[in-house]
Amino acid sequence: MKKLIVSICLIAFTTFVLSAQGGKEEIKDRIKAKRVAFITDKLNLSSQEAQLFWPLYNELKEKERALKKDSRPSNKLEEMTDQEVEQFLEDRLDKEEELIAAKREFFKEAKQVMPVKKLARLPRVERKFKEMVLQHSRERRGRN
User: Fold this and answer.
1) What is the pLDDT of residues 107-122, one digit of tens each?
2) What is the rounded distance in angstroms from the CA atom of residue 104 to the CA atom of residue 101?
3) Which terminus of the chain faces fewer neighbouring Cβ atoms within 10 Å, N or C?
4) pTM exceeds 0.85, yes or no
5) CB–CB of 64/102 below 8 Å?
6) Using an 8 Å Cβ cutoff, are 53 and 110 in contact?
């Protein structure tokens, strides 16, 4: 069943690649599809594990994106007063605490649907995926 999920993801990814005209949203969708296939394969998720894991994972990633977006300064730091910079730093620390809380909640829920050893490998697998995407990007830039 895992092979079926991976195959479906790879077919979806291939479809995106073949039909893509280079739009930003299409690129994001292709990367998401490739991420799903890569992580599912590297963690060796069963179909049941994958079905329960991905909604949790996507929720965590959405929270991360929102917190990172909210933690950007509205002005350049050089243009801010010391008080504004201090408040910005305090706000950033609050966002980091929220992110840690979100990760703890994810861990608590995810360990109910998959073995902890698979969950422990997730950060390394995510890092390998990012490295793969960066390498692919570098190679594409080198060709153009």
Assistant:
1) 999 999 999 999 999 9
2) 5
3) C
4) no
5) yes
6) yes
Res 115: pLDDT? 96
64-84 average pLDDT score = 83
Total number of residues shown for the chain: 144
Tell me, what amino acid is at 72? Answer: R
What tokens appear for 80 in the block?
Answer: 């801010």
> Could you write out the DSSP letters of every residue in the chain?
-HHHHHHHHHHHHHHHHHH--S-HHHHHHHHHHHHHHHHHHHTT--HHHHHHHHHHHHHHHHHHHHHHHHTS-SS-GGGS-HHHHHHHHHHHHHHHHHHHHHHHHHHHHHTTTS-HHHHHHHHHHHHHHHHHHHHHHHHHHHH-
Q: CA 95 to CA 19: how far, in whole Å? A: 38
pLDDT by residue (tens digit) across 94-108? 999 999 999 999 999
Rounded to 10 deg, the angle between the 24-42 and 2-19 helix axes is 160
Region of 22 please: left (phi>0), alpha (psi -120 to 50) or beta. Answer: left
